[in-house]
Specification:
The structure holds 2 protein chains of 2 kinds. Chain A is mostly helical. Chain A is built from 11 helices and no strands. Chain A has one domain. The chains are: A mainly alpha, B alpha/beta.
Chain lengths: ~270, ~280
Amino acid sequence: MSHAHVSFPSVSDEATAVRDFARQTMAVAEADIRKLIHDPVELGTRMIQPMLWLLIFGEVFTRARVVPTGGIRYLDFMTPGILAQSVLFGAIFYGISLIWERDLGIVHKFLVSPAARSALVLGRTISSAARSLCQMVFVYLLAVLLGVKLRWGPLEIAGVVCAVVLGSAVFSTFSLIAACIVKSRERFMGIGQVLTMPLFFASNAIYPISLMPVWLQGVSRVNPLTYQVDALRHLMIVGGGTTLGMGLDFGIMILALALMVGIATRLYPTIIS
Amino acid sequence: MAETKAGSLKQAQTGAAVAGPANAVETRGLTRRFGTLVAVDHLDIAFPHGSIFGLLGPNGAGKSTLIKMLTTLLAPSEGTAFVAGYDIVREPRQVRRKIGYVSQMLSADGDLTGYENLLISAKLYGISRAERKVRIERALEFMKLAHVKDKFVKHYSGGMIRRLEIAQSMLHHPAVLFLDEPTVGLDPFAKRAVWQDIRELRREYGTTILMTTHDMLEADELCETIAFMHQGTLAAIGSPAQLKAPLGPDATLNDTFIHYTGAGISEGGDLKDVARTRIISQRLG
């Protein structure tokens, strides 16, 4: 039959495939990042929430001294938690852009291109990560102004970058999955609101897990945010320490990301149906 | 009566087409169900290379569902199709390399410039850096958009957006270009400009163009072969002249459609279709 296309994969074919995959992934990310550069207002609005938390909540609880922090100032203790929170809140609503672009018809253009579905997902993950790095810079600036004792070693900073990128990737991909399931903006906003509160409060972001009742400790242990905050607290803050260990923290985040990307890749094409 | 006429005409056409070794598009028992609704019903249809085909029918006739299956956006419930020689079910990625698609909705990104839209498309199709520059410039010239390439697409007119979208879908020189209602919502002047571009594309690249429409004038002026779709099946296929022949020279395509299907072209569709068409028209301004 004339339709039988037999091909023999070779090394150069594989190299081409890898290059195409990288190019397509970056094309998806680039589209979004260019829009962000054209209109950076969204980034500005993302700065407000961490500022309020640190300036109001942080200042009050630093004076109250009710939360055991392992010997560091409460403001220092919560700063990594607030960085993680601002990344989480940015990433968890990321899926709405997919629904919006689906409604416009832009998603169809990506889906009929030869780009792999996983490249379409990863590209969006990367653009979300780029946003989160802007938030990281801002939280560092705030932390310096508030006199938080930060670690400035290049390895620590690199570690913080990795933890921020991974956290953003996990939650933005999770958000894409939610978008593919609920499919409408209204329902998505409802889901987003419902998800953020438990993710944030059932974590070690603003108080240690040891303060929680046992059942909530269990919940916090399956919450990727807990591992992100634990890594950030150790890498960002002088005397921050880690209760779970860097290996476990990064291991869990990478595992969660692989799982999320796998599921999102499956679901992505269903957004248009 | 209409049944037999439609049947014999369809037979003659598809029979001739299948005899050719490589059709641009060929469906085999292609079927799509949504619950109990059969949107496309065991469709066998073949389009040879190189012409402009129109799929005509009222809303709900199955045109868009057919296009979605042929562009791999929607999996068939049964049967399959070959597009540019590749099986849409077994080789969707190869199919996607060979096709261009402009959806009914607005696929150009309003928050990017025309140039950026083309750049992203070129990268998605894996066009190399050196080649990219040449092809984008050429596409901008071809579609007469060079002077607005650095403007945001949200400030474009409806006709300019459509031309940009067609340019985006042609950057990788696809063998088959699918256009879903390419001129819906455009004013008559912008429509004619888009028709002219479609003709030139075909002449320049030999692209097979398969478009859906429910605009009679568009089908009549632009398409060399028209397939009437009705309730998910093929009611008749032929050139506008062939299809009109039984009704005399003054027949409109609308009369012709009624002749073959017993239903008017503007019937059908539901609130959702109407709402969507209006929203698109509004956005195209």
